[in-house]
Design goal:
Layout: E1 9-13, E2 16-19, H1 34-41, E3 46-50, E4 75-79, E5 83-91, E6 106-111, E7 119-122, E8 133-138, E9 150-154
Antiparallel strand pairs: 1-2, 3-4, 5-6, 5-8, 6-7, 8-9
The structure holds zinc ion.
Length: 155
C-alpha cells in the first residue's frame, strides 16, 4: 500500500494548523415560497394575503407566508406595489464571510403601502434616508434566484 498523496497545506506550526477545505452541495427547495422568486424573474413582487374572510389581517405579507400566521388559513398570491419608503437602514462595514453584497451596501427596511410587514432589502443606487421614496429594480439578466435579485433605488 502507498501513502496517500493528498497533503494538506500547513498554515502554522504553533499550533499546528492545516487548511482542510470542505465542500458541500446543498439542495434547497423554496417549497411554497418558490413563486416569489419566480416572480422576481418577471419583475414582479409577489406577496400573499389571507383568504379567510373572518381573519382580521387583510394586509399583504412580504416576504410571503404559505399560511396565515394569524389564523393558519391558506394564502393567495397578490402582486405588491413596486414603490415604498425607507423605514430604517444600516450599512455593514465589516461583513462576515457569507455576506454577498459589497461592504458599505445600504441595507434597508421598507414600508410598502398595503403591506403589513417591513421588507428587508438593499439599495442598488443612492443613499438611504428615513422616509426616502424608492422603487424596485430587478436582476433579471443573470438572476441569483435569491432575495438579492430584488433591490431598490431612489424613486
Ligand atoms: Zn388569516
Amino acid at each position: 500500500m502507498e501513502w496517500p498523496t493528498t497533503a494538506l497545506e500547513v498554515l502554522s506550526e504553533k499550533p499546528l494548523t492545516v487548511k482542510n477545505p470542505k465542500t458541500w452541495h446543498h439542495t434547497h427547495s423554496y417549497g411554497g415560497w418558490g413563486k416569489f422568486y419566480q416572480g422576481l424573474r418577471e419583475k414582479k413582487i409577489l406577496a400573499t394575503r389571507c383568504t379567510n374572510p373572518e381573519c382580521a389581517e387583510k394586509r399583504l405579507w412580504l416576504p410571503p407566508r404559505c399560511e396565515c400566521p394569524d389564523c393558519w388559513h391558506p394564502m393567495e398570491w397578490v402582486e405588491a406595489p413596486q414603490t415604498g419608503t425607507v423605514y430604517t437602514f444600516s450599512t455593514v462595514t465589516y461583513p462576515g464571510e457569507l455576506f454577498k453584497l459589497p461592504p458599505g451596501t445600504p441595507l434597508i427596511s421598507l414600508e410598502i403601502e398595503g403591506v403589513g410587514t417591513k421588507l428587508m432589502s438593499w439599495m442598488k443606487e443612492g443613499k438611504p434616508s428615513f422616509g426616502l421614496p424608492v422603487k424596485a429594480v430587478f436582476n433579471t439578466d443573470n438572476p441569483t434566484h435569491t432575495i438579492l435579485d430584488l433591490a431598490w433605488v431612489p424613486a
